[in-house]
Amino acid sequence: MTMIQWFIFFLAIQIIHYICTWKLYQKAGRKSWEAAVPVYNAIVLMKIINRPWWWVILLFIPVINLIMFPVVWVETIRSFGKNTIADTWLAILTLGLYVGYVNYNADNLAYIQDRSLKPKTEVGEWVSSILFAIVAATIVHNYIMQPFVIPTSSLEKTLLVGDFLFVSKFHYGARTPMTPVAAPMVHDTIPILGIKSYSKWPQLPYFRFPGFEEVKKNDIVVFNWPVDTVPYFHYMGREKYFKPVDKRSNYVKRCVATPGDTLQIKDGYVYIDGKRLQLPERAKPQYSYNVEVTQGLSANYFYKNYGVTDQFYPGKVGYIFTSLTDEAVAKMKNDPSIVKVTKLLNKDGVREASTFPQSNNFNWNKDFYGPIYIPKKGATVTLTSQNIPLYKRLIKVYEGNDDAVVKNGQLFIHNQPVKTYTFKQNYYWMMGDNRDNSEDSRYWGYVPEDHIVGKPVFIWFSWDTHAKGIMNKVRWNRLFTTVGGNGEPTSYLPYFLVAIALYAGFSIFRNKKKKA
Question: Which of 94, 268, 338, 408 is 20 to 30 A from 483 via CA?
Fold first, then answer.
């Protein structure tokens, strides 16, 4: 929706509010015109229904307001004696329009100024508690911290499959929801029911609160997968439907290039502006190898001795591994059961069809890639028939130029030829440490700034599906560890348990003192 459309929508809501409530305002001892003044009318309404003024703020927070509006509708009719279950359901099912019916029958109703004096039902208390627990949890989920589980091995050895994380929204600045009509605290699908959790319409413009830091090279970042789609086509059967930005699948990768960088991959190693990228000590990149052996070796052997968790399969000679660290390779060379370990790389200049930008203009593959420029907000590039495949999707989809088309190697916007383009936002390049077993920017390109979700900061639980026995499946050394930093992760579980014990002891002491 454009700003003009949002203004019209907001104005229509205010008009409907005035039509449905002006007599109720009068009945409560206020002026009818107070129902017509935006925002002020909400503050006055909170006084009428005897609720705190800060509820008004909740009415303007996307997703949370979907919970608050029905609460306000019900509280309004109850302030005028409409307390039955039927009244409650009518207020909710008519999307608040039942308030209008009550409004025009207000002369026959008594205004209850202090509803707190009326007895409260046990069911009503439970409902109120649950609703505000959902509101509080949604605020934390959207703006402070979100739980996340690692589903794939693209960052294996740094983040493991089965790690349960807390992802900070405030490090890079919390992004406000762009899809305001959605179920709280779920992503694109409602669990169990398996149905879509949101309405594509309306859409709010992108906005991000100020953060404490910017995305830096080597940061592990959670972001929305830019090319996420659903199998839906418009009625003309031409345009494929992409999910709303904030409802696209959540991915987690390492940021290897930031806005303004020029990235190149040689022999599988990342170079930024001509210099090889130095990964932090905790990062353990993995590559594909052919391992020749003297005898058949089991998956359990490789798991116990070399920490191999990804699948491997028989090759022409020995086994082919998609994910081995440098440390594992060094140990294998001293294993009497292993004859030879050879790194598997594509040849330089041989095009891999699946790599971005899927154009014959670029003979790139996962091991020899680039150089490629990472666009920076405000930077201008000259467009040529050679580089248009790199920037076509950015300009059309991520930058909002819906009518951008390429004709005969020339980009057109608004039917006008474009020879240069200035970017409206920053872009990033994300890759997995598990280089040959990671679906990352090498295959689908840039990650726009408005797709950034947050920064993983804490592992609170970790579950190893390969281990045998319930107690062994819990990775105790990873519980309550930080994600960043160098060296092996340090568990803060003992400190957490001590803190719980101290709090429990203090609570027992305080209760005994009160009884005394």
Answer: 268
Model pTM greater than 0.85?
A: yes
DSSP 69: H
Q: Does the structure show a pLDDT above 60 at 238?
A: no
Domain 287-343 has CATH 3.30.70: yes
Query: What are the residues facing 448 on neighbouring strands?
Result: 427
Question: Rg of the Cα trace of the chain?
Answer: 29
Angle of the 64-78 helix axis to the 40-48 helix axis, nearest 10: 50
Q: Hey, what are 196's tokens?
A: 């879509």
CA dihedral sign, ordered 29, 34, 40, 45: positive
SS3 annotation, 216-267: CCCCEEEEECCCCEEEEECCCCCCEEECCHHHCCEEEEEEEECCCCEEEEEC
Question: Torsion over CA of 206, 207, 213 and 219, rounded to 10 degrees?
Answer: -20
- Spatial distance between the Cα atoms of 115 and 128, rounded to a whole number of angstroms: 15
Instruction: Say which DSSP state 140 is in.
Output: H
Structure-token pair, residue 345: 């790389």
Residue type for position 415:
N
> How many CB atoms are closer than 10 A to CB 358?
14
Segment 489-508 mean pLDDT: 85
**Residue linked to tokens 């019916």:** 101
Give me the residue spans of the domains in the chain.
3-142, 149-258+429-491, 287-343
Helices 3-27 + 40-48 axis angle, to 10? 30
- Residue 222 in contact with residue 251, Cβ under 8 Å? yes
Contact 128, 413 (CB under 8 A): no
Percent over 70 (pLDDT), the chain:
95
Query: Could you say which architecture CATH assigns to the domain 149-258+429-491?
Result: Ribbon (2.10)
The C-alpha atoms of residue 194 and residue 487 are separated, in whole angstroms, by 41
Q: What are the CA-CA distances from residue 430 to residues 10, 16, 251, 440 (Å)?
A: 39, 47, 10, 6
SS3 label, residue 208: strand
CA angle 342, 158, 452 (to 5 degrees): 115
Q: Report which secondary-structure segment, H or E, holds 380.
A: strand 380-382
Query: Given this chain, do its domains 149-258+429-491 and 287-343 carry the same CATH topology?
Result: no
Res. 324: pLDDT tops 50: yes
The backbone region for 136, taken as left when phi is positive above 0, alpha when psi lies in -120 to 50, beta otherwise, is alpha
Q: What confidence score (pLDDT) does residue 344 get? A: 92
User: Phi-psi bin for 237: left (phi > 0), alpha (psi -120 to 50), beta?
Assistant: left
Pair 338, 293: CB distance under 8 Å: yes
**Cβ pair 263, 272 in contact under 8 A:** yes
